[in-house]
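S.,

Sequence below, as promised.
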Amino acid sequence: MQITTFNPMILSKNADDIIKLFEELGFERKHQKDDIDGKDISSVRMTDANGFHVDVACVESMERDMTTMRMNVRDFDEAYDFLKSRGFKNAAGADHRVESASSISCLMISPSGFSIQLTQHIRKDD
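The prediction came back faster than expected:
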């Protein structure tokens, strides 16, 4: 399995406050994705001068903030099967995937409770 990036991701209904905090820490907004899964969910990718990344997603339905790890991979199905074989469950149930023209993703929860936001970016040369 090829991992292309690995960084923290914060899910919150107060994403603007979190984004502001990270901007004060020296992070800059790199890009934003809106209307994820056809819902009022957006995600902002932030990077600092050292090349560190953090993603902040605005999820209005969140009661409490959640920190997860975002793991981008070259082959979503391979990584998904790998995590499932080690007891991870899809947080949305069954095999739900959020698919768009540019990515495939889902939130996977480990048997002990930590989570990984599994993502494959669809590259033009794929």
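The CA atoms of residues 90 and 125 lie 28 Å apart.

Coffee later?
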